From TrEMBL:
Textual note on the cofactor: Binds 2 magnesium ions per subunit.
Reaction catalysed by this enzyme: beta-D-fructose 1,6-bisphosphate + H2O = beta-D-fructose 6-phosphate + phosphate
Stated name of the protein: Fructose-1,6-bisphosphatase class 1
Principal location class: cytoplasm
UniProt record similarity statement: Belongs to the FBPase class 1 family.
Residues annotated as binding substrate: 118-121, 210, 243, 273
Gene Ontology molecular function terms on file: fructose 1,6-bisphosphate 1-phosphatase activity
PANTHER family in the record: FRUCTOSE-1,6-BISPHOSPHATASE-RELATED (PTHR11556), SEDOHEPTULOSE-1,7-BISPHOSPHATASE, CHLOROPLASTIC (PTHR11556:SF35)
Length: 334
């Protein structure tokens, strides 16, 4: 009978990996876990409570905000505010950074960048959605944290993770020493270690891209898609095309099975649609820690300059050999 290891127990156990740790990051991760359980509860009964559909507002990206976007955003912001370990929040749903000033957070040292609900277009049709988070340590040493604290390169992340609200609810995270996955056991209300030391296969046979944008893709992407579709049994091609429309779900599938996810430039998103700070950087950190690769077709995502909170970028991410093949096509044809 295997012993269940909860997220809380695991976090404490791993704290010894960081000799100077005083428990703040552990408490921060636990705060995120609590908010995730609350969001999960609403996602699981979304059709029964008044939480489907649009809020009637738009965010800074011009996206109509779903009620669940707002609910999730509120839950994570309050959990992080009450937890006392976070001094600054960047959220997809807030144009400006949220500076946390409360007596419990007066010497908080962590910054959390979050996509509170990823895959909003899938909420009303009962398809998996998720939450993505990225954690930095503040660089400024006195007074209030600064905007610069929130504009750090992806290589500076101290932790990153996602929650996927799917057929089961999983929390997957890294602190830079590998990736571990936890499945929520609703009967005890705990995330339990279910996927220790996750590694993405270096090869895969699934490509994930919104081919509706084909005519606007760079030539290198068009060539890569044709490569995926060619008949070649020796390399198990044609690959399978799978696109859920929630980055988190597409990425999680590829983490388990191998595969590549691409969101290249399109006419409506000439710099790519996905946001660097709270979608691409955290996912790139996780995928690299699991042995995969994440670039914009040319440059490592984690090394990209962060100039603004909601800046967008292209992303080619997943099994290393597949990403490298797509990069070769970009180098040759774009
Ligand atoms: P969000 O719901 O947080 O705004 O993110 C949606 C993103 C991402 O989850 C997904 O991969 C992508 O949008 C899908 O975009 P298209 O519908 O343009 O394919
Ligand atoms: Mn959105
Ligand atoms: Mn998103
Ligand atoms: Mn979102």
């Amino acid at each position: 009978m295997s012993v269940v290891k909860t997220l809380g127990q695991f976090i404490i156990e791993k704290q010894k990996d960081f000799p100077y740790a005083k428990g703040e990051l552990s408490r921060l991760l636990r705060d995120i876990g609590i908010a995730a359980k609350i969001v999960n509860r609403e996602v699981n009964k979304a059709g029964l409570v008044n939480i489907l559909g649009d809020e009637g507002t738009t965010n800074s990206h011009g996206e109509s905000q779903k009620k669940l976007d707002i609910f999730a955003n509120h839950q994570f912001i309050s959990a992080l505010t009450c937890g006392g370990e976070c001094c600054l929040i960047v959220s997809e749903e807030n144009d400006d950074p949220i500076f946390i000033e409360s007596d419990v957070s007066h010497n908080a040292k962590y910054i959390v960048c979050i996509d509170p609900l990823d895959g909003s277009s899938n909420i009303d049709v009962n398809v998996s959605v998720g939450t993505i988070f990225s954690i930095y340590r503040r660089k400024s040493t006195e007074g209030k944290p600064t905007l610069q604290d929130a504009l750090q390169r992806g290589t500076e992340q101290v932790a990153a993770g996602y929650i996927v609200y799917g057929s089961s609810t999983m929390l997957v995270y890294t602190t830079g020493k590998g990736v571990n996955g936890f499945t929520l056991d609703p009967s005890i209300g705990e995330f339990c270690l279910s996927h220790p030391d996750m590694k993405i296969p270096e090869d895969g046979y699934i490509y994930s891209i919104n081919e509706g944008n084909y005519i606007n893709f760079p030539d290198g992407v068009k060539k890569y898609i044709k490569f995926c579709q060619e008949e070649d049994p020796s390399t198990k091609r044609p690959y399978s095309s799978r696109y859920i429309g929630s980055m988190i779900a597409d990425m999680h599938r590829n983490m388990i099975k191998g595969g590549i996810f691409l969101y290249p430039p399109t006419s409506s998103s000439p710099k790519g649609k996905l946001r660097l700070v709270y979608e691409c950087n955290p996912m790139a950190f996780i995928i690299e820690q699991a042995g995969g690769r994440a670039t914009d077709g040319f440059q490592r995502i984690l090394e990209m300059e962060v100039e603004s909170l909601h800046q967008r970028c292209s992303i080619f991410v997943g099994s290393e050999n597949m990403v490298r093949k797509a990069e070769d096509m970009m180098m040759k044809y774009s």
